[in-house]
DNA sequence: CATTAGCACTCATGGTATATGAGTGCTAAC
DNA sequence: GTTAGCACTCATATACCATGAGTGCTAATG
């Protein structure tokens, strides 16, 4: 006699087994394989009955009558939210990752995030991305102006953590060395410690006090900052290991699918916007196939973990790959990396030594 | 009666026609197609005779007996060096490119080169790369040190043109603000205008004069520069549009070939080293298939044009794609872009306004 | 004597028919 | 409730053949 929960339990075990096998073989899974894989000594016939139920319930489907079963998006969803238990990385692996990050965090932010996404891409064997904050989200420590030729200035903003932005500004009227020095001094005195969002309004307010003796300085400063802030993006998007996406068997069968994904990645307001929104929610987020809400990329998924600084979410790191991916390992990796990045943020603030 | 040169001429015309057709169709070219394409009213039979000669001579080959002909590496080589006449971009197109560059050259160097290779990649429909100089190859205009936390310094080097390098340096003993200022002042006074290659030896020489009152400064400066110069690469390698390489029919047939190419691109000392060497020679250089000298990438080619500053070659820009590529257009594009980049170098130096 | 029409020949490609077998659902026995 | 047995389905593989694009050779042509 079986209890209801035994019943449930077995359905779950079988769904889990199907998914895990499918993820590695990439071809529909039959009842016999599962029968052998599960140690419960159930005959293929029994498995078939349960698989039929799972299909009824919308967790599995058959490509055609005489084929094995393949998980549906709903199947993956249920697996991920209810079945899949967290995976811990081996002490050995997590040690290696920690050391690698240790080395990387000596770089400045851009190089760091670049290498971090490269690292996650290699670990997961998929494409990996990072959404990172820019100086716009911090208060700036220092502003440097370096004249380059007669009509150009390099403006370097050094923010909190290891964030740096450098932008060229073309000025219509040439500046001599003293003027540049004066502008730089003014900018630092006036703006350091102030959130970048308030910079322009603060300077504009000063500009209204027309008889300010610094009118000229303010005006030039304002122009420079307008250019710099317009050029600097809201956040940086790094993505590495894109060509891993061609390696999946499903991509080989139809390379056009990869192309479509690439098209979405190029546009900043579709996939990236979705990722940005998912960041707002707490915790790791998995988007599977249709859940991306974009037509043409139903065969892809991503796993995304936010990283934090002072509790607040400041960015995210994730893996992008075929829907048929090893979510267990991918989530473990992504979360672990996100945690390491969070640690880096703290370390950067402390300015500590290794 | 035909003269010998008529004879030669016709062979050349046919080789050229075969290559041009093959490049667009990607399938072996038969005699009838050529007969119709050439306006000389030669029958397919005659064409066949000449094609047989061309095969004899090693310029063409047949995949199998009953197929048309395909150019060999030698065929391409002869076509490129002796047959192919230079192509001029249309005034309209070259105008567009000029305007686009105009906009880009307002960026600082890294962003500029990045966008330039992106541009060439889109124009050519292939992958495009840039080898760009770094601050190591210029004299530095200014050196900035910004303390970040207690144990870290951001060191920004602003070189000639729009070259910028910023690197984090971890210092074991904390520096207070005054010390940082002193070091920065010392560095600027001592090193600006001096080629970076001489920096370390110059400082080391000073260090030997032990009773120098600035001993402490020199020592700290030396350490900082050692880290910065070790971190800064000799040159930057940008490559964009890699996924275009999957689009070629030959790549679809065997995606493994693309993988092999990627492997070579990852290693800095094989393909990139070859490109670096090719830069040393004057003028545009084309490497076809086996000429790359690397096994596994016989189906790929690149076209590379150096760009100059004050006559000297300071970098290069190129296109990487399947051996079966439109060399005529690719070379025209690459050379044109190289010229535009050379102009940018001059413009940057002048520091001029748009 | 270069050119070309004619023709037999080759061989990759594509289509059709058939065989195979993995996997299924159902039924009846355990 | 489980499962052995079995008929059934259908994608895939294999064999076979027809097609036709393209060839090289030969002999006729101007």
What does this structure look like?
The structure is a homodimer of 354-residue chains. With 354 residues, chain A is an alpha+beta fold. The first copy, chain A, folds into three domains: 4-83, Winged helix-like DNA-binding domain superfamily/Winged helix DNA-binding domain (Arc Repressor Mutant, subunit A), CATH 1.10.10; 91-133 and 235-350, 2-Layer Sandwich (Beta-Lactamase); 136-231, Heat-inducible transcription repressor hrca homolog, domain 3 (Enolase-like, domain 1). The first copy, chain A, is 51% helix and 19% strand. Chain A is built from 13 helices and ten strands. The first copy, chain A, has helices at residues 4-25, 31-37, 44-56, 73-83, 91-104, 109-124, 177-191, 196-208, 215-231, 249-253, 255-266, 271-280, 327-350, and strands at 60-61, 70-71, 127-133, 140-148, 152-159, 164-170, 235-240, 285-288, 300-309, 312-322. Chain A has a five-stranded antiparallel beta sheet with strand order 7-3-10-9-8, with helices on both faces. In chain A, strands 4-5-6 form a three-stranded antiparallel beta sheet. A two-stranded antiparallel sheet of chain A has the order 1-2. In chain A, helix 8 runs antiparallel to helix 9 (215-231). Chain A is elongated and about 90 Å long. The model of chain A has no long low-confidence stretch (mean pLDDT 91). Chain A binds a DNA duplex (30 and 30 nucleotides) through helix 3.
């Amino acid at each position: 006699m079986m209890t209801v929960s035994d019943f449930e339990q077995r359905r779950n075990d079988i769904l889990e087994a199907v998914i895990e096998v499918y993820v590695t073989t990439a071809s529909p899974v039959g009842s016999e394989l599962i029968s052998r894989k599960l140690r419960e000594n159930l005959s293929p016939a029994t498995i078939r009955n349960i698989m039929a139920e799972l299909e009824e319930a919308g967790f599995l489907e058959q490509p055609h009558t005489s084929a094995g079963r393949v998980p549906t998006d709903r199947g993956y969803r249920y697996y991920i939210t209810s079945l899949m238990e967290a995976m811990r990385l081996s002490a050995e692996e997590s040690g290696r990752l920690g050391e690698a990050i240790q080395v990387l965090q000596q770089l400045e932010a851009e190089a760091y995030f670049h290498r971090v996404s490269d690292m996650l891409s290699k670990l997961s064997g998929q494409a990996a991305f990072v959404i990172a904050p820019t100086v716009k989200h911090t208060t700036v420590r220092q502003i440097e102006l370096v004249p380059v030729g007669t009509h150009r200035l390099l403006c370097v903003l050094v923010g909190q953590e290891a964030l740096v932005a450098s932008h060229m500004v073309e000025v219509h009227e040439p500046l001599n060395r003293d003027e540049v020095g004066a502008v730089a001094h003014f900018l630092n005195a006036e703006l350091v410690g102030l959130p970048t969002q308030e910079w322009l309004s603060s300077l504009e307010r000063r500009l209204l006090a027309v008889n300010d003796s610094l009118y000229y300085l303010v005006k030039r400063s304002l122009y420079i900052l307008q250019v710099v802030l317009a050029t600097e993006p809201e956040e940086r998007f790094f993505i590495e290991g894109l060509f891993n996406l061609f390696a999946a068997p499903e991509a080989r069968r139809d390379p056009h699918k990869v192309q479509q994904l690439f098209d979405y990645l190029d546009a900043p307001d579709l996939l990236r916007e979705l990722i940005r929104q998912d960041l707002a929610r707490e915790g790791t987020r998995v988007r599977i196939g249709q859940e991306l809400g974009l037509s043409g990329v139903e065969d892809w998924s991503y796993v995304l973990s936010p990283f934090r600084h002072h509790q607040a979410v400041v960015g995210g790191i994730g893996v992008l790959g075929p829907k048929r991916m090893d979510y267990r390992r991918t989530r473990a990796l992504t979360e672990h990396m996100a945690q390491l990045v969070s640690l880096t943020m703290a370390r950067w603030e402390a300015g500590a030594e290794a």
